[in-house]
Amino acid sequence: QVQLVESGGGLVQAGGSLRLSCSASGRRASGKAVGWFRQAPGKERQVVAALSQNGRTSYTNSVTGRFTLSRDYAKNTVYLQMNTLKPEDTAVYYCAARWGGYDSYLGQNTGDYDYWGQGTQVTVSS
Q: How far is the C-alpha of 49 from the C-alpha of 10, rounded, in Å?
């Protein structure tokens, strides 16, 4: 059974940094594509960043240059480093994963992923 667990959320002042982790269990690290999504109150869940099986990355415009994805195969963990945080980054952040398909595919929609974590709250104060 696949399980994704996010961690690293919290309260931070504007301009600060957080690193979110998405640890997977129940399936191998290779062949996995990961997406990070966020959902603010009253809004739809939207993609923040995506990592393909072969290491390609994509970022939504509002976080480009501030957020960075990385992967540790040994730990089966994907990280989202978030710098220069802004109040509008406040949301619950979710990681999602899928195995299989094109190795360069960057999923941008919630339906592109098969497994989801429980979410971690990120709050940025002004």
A: 19
Closest CA relative to residue 37, chosen from 14, 70, 6, 15 = 6
The closest of 100, 98, 60 to 80, measured between CA atoms, is: 60
Among candidates 23, 40, 15, 55, which has minimal Cα distance to 90? Answer: 40
Selection from 90, 122, 95 nearest residue 107 by Cα: 95
Cβ neighbourhood burial of 65 (10 Å; 0-12, 13-18, 19+): exposed
pLDDT mean over 52-70: 97
Residue pair 4/97 in contact by the 8 Å Cβ criterion: yes
**Residues 17-48: tens digit of each pLDDT:** 999 999 999 888 888 999 999 999 999 999 99
Query: In the block, which residue shows the tokens 């399980």?
Result: 3
How big is the chain by its Cα radius of gyration, in Å? 14
Closest CA to 51 of 64, 70, 30: 70
Q: How many whole angstroms from its chain centre is CA 32?
A: 13
